Amino acid sequence: MQEDKAPMTSDHSKLKIPHVLTVAGSDSGAGAGIQADIKACAARGVYCSTVITAVTAQNTVGVQGVNVVPEDFVGEQLKSVLSDMEVDVVKTGMLPSIGIVNVLNQSLREFPVQALVVDPVMVSTSGDVLAGPSILAGFREDLLPLADIITPNLKEASALLGGQQLETVSDMRSAAKLLHDMGPRNVLVKGGDLPDSLDAVDVFFDGQDFYELRSSRIKTRNTHGTGCSLASCIAAELAKGSPMLQAVKVAKRHVESGLDYSKDFVIGNGVQGPFDLLFRLKSYAQNSWRQVGFNPNDLFLYAVTDSRMNKKWGRSITDAVGAAIEGGATIVQLREKDVETQGFLEAAKACLKICRSHGIPLLINDRIDVAIACDADGVHVGQSDMPARIARTLLGPEKIIGVSCKTPEQAHQAWIDGADYIGCGGVYPTNTKENNLTVGLDGLKAVCVASKLPVVAIGGISASNACSVMQIGVPNLKGVAVVSTLFDRESILTATRELHVVLQEAASMSVQRTH
Ligand SMILES: Cc1ncc(COP(=O)(O)OP(=O)(O)O)c(N)n1
Ligand SMILES: Cc1nc(C(=O)O)sc1CCOP(=O)(O)O
Ligand SMILES: [Mg+2]
């Protein structure tokens, strides 16, 4: 042992991460199996280790091949993880041989865990058989009695019950009861394939009470992996310490949202596509997988909307935003102070469409919730709004965050908090924002000089004074943000064009000065 190395410590009290071990097959198409389990646990914020029982060649068409991992090596993987890594919950998926069922059984007796979730995978959703009838006996005799919950679909429940037909919710209740008699402490019979059912109904039985868990049926071909993901979400919630029914309900809701978010994905040519539980992929649904990121030059002509002005001139917010973009606005902020949340969200979605079609970023003033709900490009917050640091946590690393600052200290804090730019004002007195402190050109300059972030000037700026603002001679002042100059005018298009011309002239003058 090297003398200068710090001794290993076994102090695990620092942060115990909930841990699910999934014992399942690999799905090369990554919709189901081990891949789905890892995604589900990640989405639920739980660590996931893996024991691979088989490697399958599969895609959206079906299963083309299965290579079963020798049972000794499954045992070796189980021992590696269970002997060392403090697993809370074991979740099983594809167990393709009776030998593997036996090895698992022995391992669980040697290394007991808090809970065992058994998803009795036998037939893939494409109809391919993943575990033959010989395994049924192993399931029934060895695994079900150890399980805290089993999660069969209708076909699997029927197979475990010797081929009994299950066609109604009442059949599902009887099946849940019979399966419960085989030893598991809880049973969830999934009714996704129930004929003539408008809702998706699952029956949960805890040995005493039945619960019919209903949700609306989401029309999509992308359902491959829902079973594995549901069982993994249940395991993840149990690992966090949730009671069983609560874990099942949360998992079901999570899978439903995943189905909804990924319902329009086009992956593969087969009849059944994968769905994805990593919600951030939802932005794919809006085609916003374009490269994202903040370009400080976008602050050049920053249009900030105002619902009162639109009302006064009798125009819709979408017309206002469209005209500002046509006139040369390079970024748009929706600052709708007196609209209700639902109206704001609808307006934001409509404006986002227009902005995306022109490659113009759209930010939301104050309302992080609305920005998240419509997947806007970012937010602008002031000193008494949601702190930028928290906004960053909520919005993630890619979204744009702007912060209003009137002093160098605030500018420094905005940088520490992970903001992308600073809005500094009021440069001049303004009627748009009540009781706004005017900092003047000197105040603007002091903030720009202190700021490590790009700055946009705001407050009382118009085509007649924008040139003086841009000429204060600091390289990180990137543009002006304006409300009334654009939106309290008869023609937004003309007003934006006028300001754009002035800003371009100011920019070319500053280029001439530096040469
Ligand atoms: C670009 C830009 N700069 C400053 C502000 C003002 O934000 P805030 O101080 O939060 O005031 P309200 O706009 O919320 O009244 C801004 N909106 N945009
Ligand atoms: C929204 C806002 N913030 C300001 C600040 O000083 O932070 S001034 C302001 C209003 C800007 O409107 P107009 O362009 O009509 O003067
Ligand atoms: Mg604000």
Automatic annotation (TrEMBL):
Q: Which UniProt keywords apply?
A: ATP-binding, Chloroplast, Kinase, Magnesium, Metal-binding, Multifunctional enzyme, Nucleotide-binding, Plastid, Thiamine biosynthesis, Transferase, Transit peptide
Residues covered by the Thiamine phosphate synthase/TenI domain = 301-485
What reaction(s) does this enzyme catalyze?
4-methyl-5-(2-phosphooxyethyl)-thiazole + 4-amino-2-methyl-5-(diphosphooxymethyl)pyrimidine + H(+) = thiamine phosphate + diphosphate; 2-[(2R,5Z)-2-carboxy-4-methylthiazol-5(2H)-ylidene]ethyl phosphate + 4-amino-2-methyl-5-(diphosphooxymethyl)pyrimidine + 2 H(+) = thiamine phosphate + CO2 + diphosphate; 4-amino-5-hydroxymethyl-2-methylpyrimidine + ATP = 4-amino-2-methyl-5-(phosphooxymethyl)pyrimidine + ADP + H(+); 2-(2-carboxy-4-methylthiazol-5-yl)ethyl phosphate + 4-amino-2-methyl-5-(diphosphooxymethyl)pyrimidine + 2 H(+) = thiamine phosphate + CO2 + diphosphate
Renumbered to this chain, the signal peptide range is none
Question: Which biological process terms from the Gene Ontology are attached to this UniProt entry?
Answer: thiamine biosynthetic process; thiamine diphosphate biosynthetic process
From the UniProt record, give the pathway where this protein acts: Cofactor biosynthesis; thiamine diphosphate biosynthesis; 4-amino-2-methyl-5-diphosphomethylpyrimidine from 5-amino-1-(5-phospho-D-ribosyl)imidazole: step 2/3; Cofactor biosynthesis; thiamine diphosphate biosynthesis; thiamine phosphate from 4-amino-2-methyl-5-diphosphomethylpyrimidine and 4-methyl-5-(2-phosphoethyl)-thiazole: step 1/1
Give the cofactors, semicolon-separated: Mg(2+)
The protein's predominant localisation is: plastid
Pyridoxamine kinase/Phosphomethylpyrimidine kinase domain location = 27-270
The GO terms describing molecular function are:
ATP binding; hydroxymethylpyrimidine kinase activity; metal ion binding; phosphomethylpyrimidine kinase activity; thiamine-phosphate diphosphorylase activity
Per UniProt, subcellular location reads as: Plastid, Chloroplast
Q: Does the keyword Transit peptide apply?
A: yes
Gene Ontology CC entries for this record? chloroplast
Record's function text = Essential for thiamine biosynthesis. Bifunctional enzyme that catalyzes the phosphorylation of hydroxymethylpyrimidine phosphate (HMP-P) to HMP-PP and condenses 4-methyl-5-(beta-hydroxyethyl)thiazole monophosphate (THZ-P) and 2-methyl-4-amino-5-hydroxymethyl pyrimidine pyrophosphate (HMP-PP) to form thiamine monophosphate (TMP).
Q: Which PANTHER family match?
A: HYDROXYMETHYLPYRIMIDINE_PHOSPHOMETHYLPYRIMIDINE KINASE THI20-RELATED, PHOSPHOMETHYLPYRIMIDINE KINASE
Q: Which family does it belong to?
A: Belongs to the thiamine-phosphate synthase family.
- What is the designated name of this protein? Uncharacterized protein
Per the UniProt record, the source organism is: Carpinus fangiana
